[in-house]
Amino acid sequence: MCERAVFLGVDLGSVSTNLVLLDPYTDEVVVKLYLRTNGAPIQALVKGMKQLADRGPWEVLGVGTTGSGRQLAAAILGADVVKNEITAHAVAAIKHNPATSTVIEIGGQDSKIILIRNGVVHDFAMNTICAAGTGAFLDQQAARLGIAIEEFGNLALQSQHAVRIAGRCTVFAESDMIHKQQLGHGVADILAGLCQAMVRNYLSNVAKGKRIAPVVLFQGGVAANTGIRKALESALGMEVEVPDHYDVMGAVGAAVLAKERWTGASRTRFAGFAIGDSSFASTSWECSDCPNHCEIVQIARDGTPLACWGSRCGKHQLAGVENGSA
Amino acid sequence: MEQVIGVPRGLDYYLFYPFWQHFLASLGLGTVVSPPTNKAIVDLGATHAVDGCCLPLKVYLGHVLTLAEQGITAFFVPRIVGIARREYICPYFLGLPDFISHYLPRKGTEVISPVVDFRRGELAAAKELIRFGARYVPWPEAARAYYSAWLAFRSWRQRQITAVAPERLTVLVLGHRYLVDDSFLNQGVMGRLHQAGAQAITSYQLPEAFLSKGAKRLGKRMFWTSGRQSLGALEECLGKVDGVITLAAFACGTDSLVTDLIQRRARQAGVPNLLLYVDEQTGEAGIGTRLEAFVDMLVRSKQR
């Protein structure tokens, strides 16, 4: 069997770890994996790589990583490009639909808005100090109400009359929801109210002062929630498109960026699928050489240090990969 | 016995230190400056300061307490009323000596706080400072000390004026000088920009006349000096820079207004702008990711 050439994109996020193999000629997504990180990013990544290897064989031409764990993923995989989530999501959105003007991305622990003009990022914003209204909160509330997160959206759509929930702060939102339950409101109405509250919060916090123009793409794990999508559409008064690969757009973007970097002559740093059989360990300690007490993290593969970071002064630094600037 | 005066490396230090260094030395006063801000200093200040005050003030207190831990008993904390004619600065500066005294033992410590007030012009301010100097040396000597310090200060300011290479990717960094110049607090924003291949300029590297000229074009007078400088720099730099980054301190009163004005103006002029809030949290992910994405954005649109 012949090895198929692909680019690998990885989005190591707080809630999910996504891997994508991209066809170098058509930019089609060949394989996509959406795994729960479950607080164990290394294990999630290694598990994902094993699953990819099982569906091979692949010839990986280049690797791109993104997400809050992009450095970690880069160190383990041997990435060619390490990019922030904003650039990765924007690149994937433009690839999906070149007419995209606005990207609304709501992930596990952050949410962002990206404005695109003439095919380049023009402006962006991320949620600031508070992560109210992101996927992790929806997960938590679904669990509290005893419903599967996958059913959340459809249940919210059944609502006839959405109740008003305070969405500024998730702590207050939760007490508001409990109060509304005690008053006897139905679950569907409460969920629909929660969707509206989250959208209100997003628009007034993250998208504050930004001009949202069509085409609007909605991506990130929360885009699976049809209730949120409907609430967004009615608040914005325009159609909101959810791309097919909405849940792995960051990984798609990372793969596209790896392809952009690839010249044909360049060799990838990819460590190979064998990493699935290696054991990775991370150790961390507080450096006490100066009063800053930086938290140093070291990643080792089978006992050999791969990468080390975390100091402000550059001491202990062992770069697994350079930070790719486009 | 000669007393060593502790100079906290915070707030006004970044604006005036060369002046004080000269002036105090000419008055025969020995000084020691607290070390550059580090985590221990931030923690010390944040633990002791009242909840409501801004981050830079907490950090300033951290510097004072660090000096106190080193056995310093005299602290140089000027009372700054205004640093430009008919303009104000943050009122915390006005009450700074009182604020700091509150955290020091009453017995055996001295807070040295000359009054700095340029609201009625340089001459009035000079008189006040010479009067302060005359507490340590005879009057004429104090006057000489003042003028030599003033000249040294002016030439320091002059040396900072930087020419901008127009062909390079340029980012204007705005904000209080004690944020822009404190690379610990801002998590190395300037260094990160340089690393990413951008040239970063601040309003302090632009001539004062340039800033005032820009500020004149505002619809209304900005009466805080730092705000006027930031907005003036922005006005004058529109069309000359690729992007604007605003550093704002958590819980800063003047920033809450000025940053919004900066953002509105930049948006109106179509200049990409990024607002970075600086707070006590040590996580670098927030600033790093945003900065990286911002520079990416500028580079990619310049390539077009």
Task: Describe this structure as you would to a colleague.
- The complex is a heterodimer of chains A (326) and B (304).
- Chain A is an alpha/beta fold and 326 residues long.
- Chain A has 2 domains: 114 residues, Nucleotidyltransferase, domain 5, CATH 3.30.420; 145 residues, Nucleotidyltransferase, domain 5 (2-Layer Sandwich).
- Chain A contains 9 helices and 13 strands.
- In chain A, strands 3-2-1-4-5 form a 5-stranded mixed β-sheet.
- In chain A, β2 and β3 form a beta hairpin.
- The radius of gyration of chain A is 21 Å and the shape is globular.
- Chain B folds into 2 domains: 157 residues, 3-Layer(aba) Sandwich (Rossmann fold); 134 residues, Rossmann fold, CATH 3.40.50.
- Chain B contains 13 helices and 10 strands.
- In chain B, the strands form 3 sheets. In chain B, strands 2-1-3-5 form a 4-stranded parallel β-sheet, with helices on both faces. A 4-stranded parallel β-sheet of chain B has the order 8-7-9-10, with helices on both faces. In chain B, strands 4-6 form a two-stranded parallel ribbon.
List the helices and strands and how they pair.
The complex is a heterodimer of chains A (326) and B (304).
Chain A: E1 4-12, E2 16-22, E3 29-36, H1 41-54, E4 58-66, H2 70-77, E5 81-82, H3 85-96, E6 102-106, E7 111-117, E8 120-126, H4 135-144, H5 149-157, H6 170-182, H7 187-205, E9 216-219, H8 226-236, E10 240-241, H9 249-261, E11 280-286, E12 295-301, E13 304-309
Parallel strand pairs in A: 1-4, 4-5, 6-9, 9-10
Antiparallel strand pairs in A: 1-2, 2-3, 6-7, 7-8, 11-12, 12-13
Helix pairs in contact in A: 3-9, 5-7, 5-8, 6-7, 7-8
Chain B: E1 4-7, H1 13-26, E2 30-33, H2 39-48, H3 55-69, E3 74-76, E4 79-82, H4 91-94, H5 96-101, E5 110-112, E6 115-117, H6 122-133, H7 139-160, E7 170-174, H8 177-180, H9 189-195, E8 199-202, H10 208-216, H11 225-237, E9 243-249, H12 253-269, E10 273-278, H13 285-303
Parallel strand pairs in B: 1-2, 1-3, 3-5, 4-6, 7-8, 7-9, 9-10
